[in-house]
Specification:
Radius of gyration: 24 Å
CATH topology of the largest domain: Rossmann fold
Number of strands: 14
Shape: elongated
CATH superfamily of the largest domain: P-loop containing nucleotide triphosphate hydrolases
CATH class of the largest domain: Alpha Beta
CATH architecture of the largest domain: 3-Layer(aba) Sandwich
Helix content: 25-40%
Largest sheet: 6 strands, mixed
Number of helices: 11
Order of helices and strands: EEEHEEHEHHHEHEHEEHEHEEHEH
Distance between the termini: 34 Å
């Protein structure tokens, strides 16, 4: 695994007030260079607070964050030279054109006029914004505005780009275009750390991800490994007319070759199984004898992993 470019150790953030709130509760995280790394969890899980501390916008209560070896609390200005940030909300300068938003960002980070002009032209072309160079941000669609925010954020060639809920509010077509823009950053050697509560986004974009809830990391791995940890290729949810003899049915289902686990769920049973010819027919035949009312078939997802860890829906 590559050297860690983002190192978070024992991170805590407590907001004191009438009712003290612990937003981040002892997070340890190591993000290897060159990856797209995701923090997946519901709203209020602590994702944005973690990003805010890592990007010097908030001070931790305890713990440390280093970006490319630089402590963000001890040396925030130096750390910011290695950081690009796209926050949840549109922060484009509405008094500047699309091109000027990028150009002045370049100048702020010390590029000469010639360098800033060349870098602006390059990014406008890279993010397919050249034809809107003279437009103002308020004239852009949500998807174009988000692409401009990403272009501006990497204008000074940071080593790490932080994206906080990058596809929030985007329509499906704009979301896919944004994903393509983010995936293209791999070729520039930029490490991307993003937060999201969209499972599809985490699965599509991330090389590795951490599932976070109540300020704690619950599990961390590749999306494929997290889904494989469920223990099956297929999930059959059996809704029964009654709960009588559910224990017997559960034991019987566990004897079917290919079934790896049977769990009690609200109104029935959940069967996890390896893909195998004829297995579904055997499950249905057996369940029919006990009053099968309905059956749904799905494949393991990051939502399944989250529910297994927390017992609740990821969108809560």
């Amino acid at each position: 695994m590559s050297e860690s470019i983002v190192e978070i150790l024992g991170l805590r953030k407590v907001y004191n007030g009438k009712n003290s709130v612990t937003a981040v509760d002892g997070i340890d995280l190591h993000v290897p260079a060159g990856l797209i790394y995701g923090l997946l969890g519901p709203n209020g899980a602590g994702k944005t607070t973690t990003i805010s501390i890592a990007t010097t916008r908030a001070i931790p209560t305890a713990g440390s964050v280093k970006i490319a070896g630089v402590d963000v609390v001890a040396h925030p200005a130096l750390a910011r030279r290695s950081i690009g940030v796209v926050p949840q909300f549109n922060t484009l300068d509405r008094s500047c054109t699309v091109a000027e938003n990028i150009y002045f960002h370049c100048r702020y980070f010390g590029l000469t006029k010639t360098e800033a002009t060349a870098r602006t032209a390059q990014l406008l072309d890279q993010f397919r914004l050249s034809d809107r160079a003279a437009a103002y941000p308020q004239a852009l669609s949500g998807g174009l505005a988000q692409r401009l925010q990403i272009a501006r954020a990497i204008a000074h060639r940071p080593r790490v780009l932080f994206l906080d809920e990058p596809s929030a509010g985007l329509d499906p077509q704009s979301r896919i275009a944004m994903w393509e823009a983010v995936q293209g950053l791999r070729g520039e050697g930029i490490t991307v750390v993003l937060t999201t509560h969209y499972m599809e986004e985490a699965d599509e974009l991330c090389d590795r991800l951490a599932i976070i809830d109540h300020g704690k990391i619950l599990i961390e791995d590749t999306p494929a490994a997290l889904k494989a940890s469920i223990g099956g290729d297929k999930i059959y949810d059996l809704r029964m007319r009654g709960v009588r003899d559910s224990g017997i049915l559960k034991r019987n289902l566990q004897t079917i070759e290919g079934v790896t686990r049977v769990e009690v769920i609200d109104g029935g049973l959940r069967v996890l199984a390896r893909a195998k010819d004829g297995l579904l027919a055997k499950v249905v035949t057996m369940a029919n004898e006990f009053g099968l009312r309905d059956l749904t078939t799905t494949e393991p997802s990051l939502e399944t992993v989250f529910i297994r860890l927390t017992g609740r829906d990821l969108r809560e």
